[in-house]
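Translate sequence into C-alpha cells.
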Amino acid sequence: MRERRPIELLSPARDIATAKEAILHGADAVYIGAPRFGARAAAGNTIDDIATLVEYAHFYRVKVYVALNTILRDDELAEAEKIIHDLYRAGVDALIIQDMAIMKLDIPPIPLHASTQCDNDSIQKVRFLQEAGFTQVVLARELTLKKIKEIADNTDVPLEVFIHGALCVSYSGRCYLSRALSGRSANRGECAQCCRLPYELSDAQGNTLVKEAYLLSLKDMNRGEYLEELLDAGVTSLKIEGRLKDAAYVKNITAYYRQLLDGIFARRSEYRRSSAGKSKIKFTPDPNKSFNRGFTPYFSDMPSFKTISSRFTPKSTGEYIGTLTGTNGRGLKLTNASVMHNGDGVLYKTPQGEVGGFRVNRVSEDTIYPAEEKKLPQGTEVYRNYDSEFEKQLSQPTAERHIPITAELSYNGRHLVLQLTDDEGITIKAEETLLQVEAAKQPQDDNQRRQLSKLGGTGYKAEETILHDTGKLFIPSSQLAALRRKAVADLTTTRSKKYTREKPGIRNTPAYPQKKLTYTANIYNTAAEQFYKECGVESISPAYEANPEKGVPLMHTKYCIRREFGQCPQNNQKAEWKSPLWLKNGNTRLRLDFDCKQCIMTVTKP
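Result follows.
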C-alpha cells in the first residue's frame, strides 16, 4: 500500500497566544518571529515564549518554525548565531531564512527553510537550495500551477506555497521602494508599504491616464478553490500569510482551510494531515468576514489575474453587502440590510468613486443608521469590513483540539490497571492497588466509563472506553480519578519523549546557476559573499541596502498596470498608452517599464 503523503497547513502567529489559537483551529505547523531579524520587525518573540509554544505545539505534533529571514550586517552575525543556538535549545523545528551568511555560521543541527524572500522562482534555484542543504523551500507567490508542478517534478525538496493573505506587488526579496523612499528596508523587516499609497498615472507625453488611485495595491490572495490542484502539483506545505494579524483573523482563516483540507483528505486517500489530533470548530469560518482587500488566486496564467489590484482603497473592504437605494431621514436604505448588525463597520464607494466608511449605529428593516450622519447617493456600494456579531463570536473560545485515545480498565486480582493508547499507537499502563475489594450492588460500568472519560483540559478525548469485567466491582470514584490522572501524565511524558525533530540537511556549496549576482541577490555581509564565491559566483554586487544605486529598478513585479487596464499587447489588447509610464505621489515620480517577453513590470526612481 502506498504511503499517504503528509500535508501541512502552516499558520502565522504574531505571539504565543495567537499561535495556540492557530493550533486549536487546525494548524499542522505555525511560524513565528525570532527575538530579532524577522521580516516583520514588529512581531518578535522571546526565547522563553517560543520554548513554551514548542512544548504546547509538539503535544499535537505541530511543528514550530521561526522566521529569521532578514538580511544581516557583519556586526549582527554573532548575535544571529547566538539566537539560533537559543532557538535550537528551545526545541524549534526549523528556521526560515533569507541570508546565506547563516550557512557559514557555527550553528547547531537545525533544519533550514528557504524564505520566499530568496526569490525561489525556478527549477535551477530550488535545486540549488536543495543541494545546499535546505529541507523546505518557500516558492515565489507569482508562479503558475504549471510552473509549480515543473519544479516539484524536477526537485526532491518539500515545497511550500502561500495560499492566503496580503500580496506584495513585487517579487518578494526584490523590492527596494521602501528603502529608496523612506530609508526603511523591506529586506530588514521594516517595509513602509509605499505600494499602498495613492498614485497618479501618466504616459510618456505627460498626459494623465488615471487620476489618484492605489495603483500598486493588490487584492489579497485566496486559493481555497485550488488546494487540490496545488497538492496534485506536488506542494506539501500550504501557508497562510499574516504574522501581524490578530487572533480572530488567524482563528477564522486557519479553520477555513482546515475544513477544506479535511474534505479533500476524506476523498483522496493518498493525502493526510501532518499533525495529530482533531479540531472541533464551533463557528462557521468565512474568509470574507476577516480583513481582506478583495480576493484573487494570483495564478498569472488565469483570466482572473487581469484584475488583481485593489485600486480604490488599500484598506479592508470585507464582504459586499449591497447598494444604497435611497434615504430615510438620517438612515440609508440598503439592499440586504437585514444581514447587518448594530456596531458593524462599513466601507462605501459612491458611483463617483468617493470612498469612505462609518460605524452602524442601528439597523431597522431595510435601513441602516450611521453613527454620524452621511449623505450618500443612490447606487453607492456598501461593504461590511467589520462584522460585530462575528467578531464577538470569535472573541470567545471557538475551537477544541483533542488527541483521540482508547482507555482500557482491568483488574488483575490486586491492581487496577488502566491502559491508554493514542492514535499513534503509543501505549502506557498505570496501576493502582485496590485496597478493598467489594462486589457492586449494581453494575458500575456507566460510572467507570464516565470517570475515565473526564479528560477536559488534558488535550485528550476517550473515543473508546473498554472495561474488562470491572463493572461488577465497586471502585471509588476518587481512586478512578487518581488512576486516570496518573495514566494521562504518563502518556503525555511518553509522547513528549517520542517526538522527533526533522533532521537537518547536509550543508554544502553546490554550483550556483549564475556567475554574476547583482544588487537583487541581497548580499549584505562578507559571510554571504564568501558562500556565493564558494558556489562559483565570480562577480558580486552589494545589496541595495549597502549601496543604494541610482537609476536601478526598485521593483520587479508580475503585476502589470497595462494589463490591468486592458492595454497589454501580448493579449491582443488595444495598447494605446505610450511607454514609459509614470506614477506620481507628491514629489515622488516613478518610471514604469515593461519587459513583455518575461511579462515583468519594473518600477524605477529616476
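Note: The mean pLDDT is 95.
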